[in-house]
Amino acid sequence: MQLDTSSSRTLEQAVAYWVNDGSADGILIAAWTKHGSSLNEARASMRKLTLTAADGVAGNWVALDGSADTFATDAPAVEADKIYSDDGGSSALSLIRRGGNGSHKDDLYVFVGEEEDNSGDTVNAYRASWNSLNGD
Please, which pLDDT band fits residue 118 given cuts at 50, 70 and 90? Predict the structure, then answer.
């Protein structure tokens, strides 16, 4: 199964992260970057695993927040969220779940490093609040 594809842009920095949501099989989060030709994005999607062939069907993957973003340029093959978007440069990303105790123990932290040609490079940090009731 392909989460994203392109003949004219570069896909990199794929990250897989398994979330123990208390179900039998958990949730798999996939995040990646896509850049080139006036596009520089960090994207992510997830699947509540069943450990069946259904996990390999693109239509069964959903955006992290339950509502897929609109991609004006070179949309992914699955429903996904646009974590970061710019019109140039390239990005790298990483993500981690907070863990521990407390009300935000399941939140995801996503870090996107952006390299801009001949201008200010940045590292951006995002917190995705995890909704345990919805599993997103």
Answer: low
Distance CA 15, CA 93 (A): 8
Q: How many domains does the chain have?
A: 1
Alpha carbons within 13 A on the beta-carbon side of 44:
25
Q: Report if residue 29 sits inside a domain.
A: yes
CA angle 66, 132, 43 (to 5 degrees): 40
Give this prediction's pTM: 0.86
Cα separation of 114 and 134, whole Å? Answer: 31
pLDDT score, position 15 = 92
In a domain, 3, yes or no: no
